[in-house]
Amino acid sequence: MKSKTEKFYTFNKNSLSVISKVLKTKLKKIGNFYRYELRNEKEKRKLALEIYPDILIGDKIGTMVSVYALNSFLQLHFCTGFAVSEELNEVTFIGDMNGKLSGLIVEREAGCSLYANVDRKILSGDFTRLAPEVMMSGIALSLTESLFPEK
User: Residue 79 burial by CB count (10 A; 0-12/13-18/19+): exposed, middle or buried?
Assistant: First the structure.
């Protein structure tokens, strides 16, 4: 089994094509953003992932990631990087604000998860000391741990 995780800090032609490859979908450039559309016919799910690199968010420039799903709309402001896992068939977009992480995970099978305001220390801690409902966020976002410099 192929086990490969890559991490990126910017959205450029190369990193956007890696997202396409992992999610097995085509990239569309629409105006100032990029769009991927995912379908899972068996589960009757679909979603659209949109990436807005370097846009004005309030009074600052940053990257915004949006997910439009059948029953939800999710947005991650000030995305600081992302990790792709070919083994898990998913892309994890991450935002880091004052030691609190928010992660938006998009799966090839048109699934998505959001973890917001997760204490960064959880990612490198002992998961067995956490309550199961808290442990899930640490495990899910641990893929992105090396995106952040040591503090």
Answer: buried
CB–CB of 4/85 below 8 Å? Answer: yes
The partner residues of 5 in beta bridges, in order of sequence, read: 85
Contact predicate 37/48, CB 8 Å: yes
5 touches 85 (CB < 8 A): yes
Radius of gyration, alpha carbons of the chain: 15
Rounded distance between C-alpha atoms, residue 15 and residue 45, angstroms: 25
Burial string for 44-55 (b: 16+ CB within 10 Å, else e) reads ebebebbbbbee
Task: Find out whether 104 and 93 touch, Cβ atoms under 8 Å.
Answer: yes
Q: What is the pLDDT of residue 1?
A: 41
Question: What pLDDT, in 10s, does the model give residues 33-83?
Answer: 999 999 999 999 999 999 999 999 999 999 999 999 999 999 999 999 999
For 75, list phi and psi in degrees, rounded to 5. Answer: -140, 140
- Give the Cβ contact number of residue 95 at 10 Å: 21
The token duo for 104 is 């938006």
